[in-house]
């Protein structure tokens, strides 16, 4: 999960470079920075899914093999998405042209959405079956989805209206960024809850790994 947050930091930095005009549209470096952002976005989604699947103990979480696999697979995801983006922007590929962005659309919107959807389903399974209805975790997961949906709606649906109503001082990207920040905060809180770093969450979990049931968990907490 730490790799996910480091990827997120990298994504934030490259987004600031693009959005603040450090590399302005039309410059020689702009296409490369945007392609990097496309690849980094895919890595963020993939690392989140990888961390989510680790909860099912498909592999030994934290082992050298697991971390190495995460790094290699993330590098592969980044390279593929970066090449699709830069070939599309530069028109270097046969089917990848700046007037034919279907492949880029599929990689950036469809595949990333699929990875996020799989992560959500996997975490719902953990909350409802592995942890047997952990309401704290479900609440954090609900808020994660709410803030993520709000960020997308504010950015793509109401950004222009917000800009006009506020006399062009701000647009929807400000509120979208705030919603995205809350979304990431809830992802961290969700991860914190399901890893049982805080004893308070035991009281709202019907089954606790290595403890057996809620009654025994409560008894241990009292002691």
Tell me what the structure shows:
The chain is built from 8 helices and no strands. The longest helix has 29 residues. It starts with a helix and ends with a helix. The chain folds into 2 domains: 130 residues, no CATH class; 82 residues. With 223 residues, it is mainly α.
Beginning-to-end CA distance, first to last residue: 32 Å
Gross morphology is: globular
Regions with pLDDT < 50 over 5+ consecutive residues? Answer: 197-203, 207-213
Rg on CA atoms, Å: 20 Å
Chain-averaged pLDDT = 83
The H-and-E topology, N to C, reads as HHHHHHHH
Helix/strand class: mainly alpha
Helix content: over 70%
- The total count of helices amounts to 8
How many domains make up the coordinates? 2
- List the quaternary state of the chains: single chain
β content, as a range?
Answer: under 5%
Give the total of beta strands: 0
| Major sheet description | none
Protein name: Chitin synthase export chaperone
Transmembrane segments: 6-22, 34-56, 68-89, 101-121, 133-157, 169-191
GO molecular function, one term: unfolded protein binding
GO cellular component, one term: endoplasmic reticulum membrane
Core attributes:
single chain; about 220 residues; mainly alpha; 8 helices; globular
Tell me briefly what this model is:
This protein has 223 residues and is mainly alpha-helical. Helix content is 72%, strand content 0%. It folds into two domains: 1-130, no CATH class; 132-213.
Draw up the topology in text.
Elements: H1 2-19, H2 30-54, H3 64-90, H4 102-130, H5 135-156, H6 159-165, H7 172-194, H8 214-222
